[in-house]
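[SOLVED] Need 3D model of a two-part complex

Original post:
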Amino acid sequence: SSELTQDPAVSVALGQTVRITCQGDSLRSYYASWYQQKPGQAPVLVIYGKNNRPSGIPDRFSGSSSGNTASLTITGAQAEDEADYYCNSRDSSGNLVVFGGGTKLTVL
Amino acid sequence: QVQLQQSGPGLVKPSQTLSLTCAISGDSVSSNSAAWNWIRQSPSRGLEWLGRTYYRSKWYNDYAVSVKSRITINPDTSKNQFSLQLNSVTPEDTAVYYCARDEGAVAGLYYYYYMDVWGKGTTVTVSS
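Solution:
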């Protein structure tokens, strides 16, 4: 079982805004990072830290955190955003790495 | 530009040892800020972190509880790479295995870590 909990699936209409959440006690001390994974590809970092985007990630991706919940928001979702999204952080001890179970995003 | 190149067999027999290598270019396995991770993914488990090695004046390793008794991750400074060995494999170890670089920082009261560079993945099947 994962110490980070994500909804298994979320859908959004093309051009609308969607929020994907990640819950866990360790998120009170650590910011989550977020990864996008498309079929047959390695995960790609899309958000890290308080709200940082690696070079090349569109600014429609943003991150936020409150209490034990981290959120990834896509403002104006595009068809190419359809993918699995994973959050990642440390466990409660701070020593081990954990991933959420992943959220499958469908763009309608 | 940092790149990770994975290598190793795609088929391992049950009870044997799974061995993979991740060669680093553009960074050093002895970096004082990065950690070098192995992660795997199977349809039933999603992304599962296996362990990491990192250098902070000396070498450290952390391993996931689920594989701690069977796993070894070693750095090789002469070749600037790191390796994964997973012993006594079963079909449950069938997965795509990834290596990844992990960086960290602090922002106010929060720490954060992120895996910004990934290998392409190696599909490993455990079967006789």
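Edit: Chain B has a mean pLDDT of 95.
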